[in-house]
Design a protein that fits this description.
0% strand
Length: 131
């Protein structure tokens, strides 16, 4: 699925109270805000063809999504980081074709947003059920 259960479980283990889950809820809902802001910045950077900014934003969101175990978002953000670094998907081979990279970035950002929307829906449901 969209969430690595053992990683997310470690966050849930930090909750003092399984009923209100105040601690993990705070982390998760902060991530939602962070992700939405980051995606907005990615859109701006993509329009400006600012590869370095896209690399940084991809790296940033990769880290915070990995912390929560959001594996699909993490993987897409890692690709965004690589493309922003003007590398191929693996991050090891230089990709000189900026048109191609921009096209890949466009697609990958769209995928990341879609994956985020799915996981956000699941997590919001989880927290409303446990409220």
């Amino acid at each position: 699925g969209f969430v690595d259960v053992s990683t997310f479980g470690q966050i849930l283990d930090m909750d003092d109270d399984d009923d209100d889950r105040e601690f993990s809820r705070g982390i998760v809902f902060d991530f939602f805000d962070q992700a939405n802001q980051t995606f907005a910045k990615m859109d701006t950077a993509l329009e400006a063809e600012d590869f370095n900014e896209l690399k940084e934003l991809g790296h940033f969101l990769k880290g915070s999504s990995a912390t929560l175990g959001l594996v699909k978002v993490r993987d897409s953000c890692e690709k965004i980081q690589h493309y922003g670094d003007k590398k191929d998907t693996s991050g090891t081979i230089d990709e000189p074709d900026e048109r191609l990279l921009l096209s890949q970035l466009d697609k990958t950002i769209a995928s990341a947003k879609q994956e985020f929307t799915e996981v956000e829906k699941e997590l919001r449901k989880f927290y409303s059920d446990s409220a």
